[in-house]
Amino acid sequence: MSSARSAVHPPAQPGSALLRKVSAMVRSRGTVVLIAGLLVSAAALTGCDGRPEATGQASSSTVPAPTVTTSTSDGGPSGGPSISSQATPTSPPAPPRANAQPKDFDARNFGTALPAEPNQYFPLVAGTQTLRDGTITRGSRKLHHRRRVTVTDVVKEVDGVLTVAVLDQDIDAGQVSEAALDYYAQDRTGNVWYLGSYTEIYEGGEFVNAADAWLAGENEATAGIAMLADPQEGLRYVEARIPGRETIRAEVAEVGKRKCVPFQCFPQALSVLEDGTELKYYGPGVGDIATEPEYSGGEQEKEELINVIQLTPDGLREASKEALRLDRHARTAAEHVFARSAPAERAR
Questions:
Q1: How far apart are the first and last CA of the chain?
Q2: What is the CA radius of gyration of the chain?
Q3: Strands (DSSP E) along 69-118, which ranges?
Q4: Predicted confidence (pLDDT) per residue in 27-48, tens digit
Q5: How far is it, in rounded angstroms, from Cα 102 to Cα 251?
Q6: CA atoms of 241 and 226, how far apart (whole Å)
Q7: Is the pTM value of this prediction over 0.85?
Q8: Looking at the chain, which runs of residues are DSSP E strands?
Q9: pLDDT value for 4
Q10: Closest alpha carbon to 301 in 191, 167, 144
């Protein structure tokens, strides 16, 4: 999660247009063909070669590696709450982009779970999956892991707002070591809000314990801003406030900065300083592309985007199934937070 602001304003890009094209890629070894690579606006991005496969292997207790295709359909059956990312012909024009602060939270300022025009730095588009390579340096040891993040089509009402569940999985040695659900919603003026989280820890594919469980409106926790509608350099905001535990603060560091990662170069990237210790970079049309420490010594963690794909209907169904499992388990493993919350469900 993160936030942002801008000294150089990149052009606004409707998120629904960003997933209309998918590039084909063939891995150099073996016979595995990967059709992937989310294309964003040519004015905003320049490409780099060598994009690796985007699906890691899950443990036996978690979602298997999803199938990849050029399809952008969510593949869900009919019925349930709407998450349409396409505006209907009768939809009123969207209000102008306007930044918010946590004190501005009002459930009446939200619409459908997935917006018609996603925030360009934090696009909530069902079926989008990113893969990031990461390392944690502890002294002289460098530990490698991968992080797979999927925007599901699972929705949950949190503090009066219909949120979408984002599945965040850490993969170590081919197994999921951590699986988290983060609950986000975009308001009518383009701010993406962070309304809750739940994390499970695994060892050898077996559940160990639950951590980081909170929901806005429960135990005095309040929603924060994951991404501003119109980030500007120097803007400060709160990403989450969890009484008795933590308050996550952020400040927009730079806007319009060129940032290259293995997946692609982003001429109009945004960087956000989180809690004064970590820089997070965001690319237009893609979202989180890199994380770098902003301190010396101690444990150093880095991540870089290596691929973006759009899941097939079957792949999205599998990811959403795992999100539903986590939300159900949270009702017992983190009963003090989730027991009274509305159950999550797949939206159509």
A1: 25
A2: 19
A3: none
A4: 333 333 333 333 333 334 444 4
A5: 14
A6: 12
A7: no
A8: 22-26, 33-38, 46-47, 128-138, 141-158, 161-172, 175-186, 192-203, 206-215, 224-227, 236-242, 246-260, 264-274, 278-283, 287-293, 300-310, 345-346
A9: 33
A10: 144
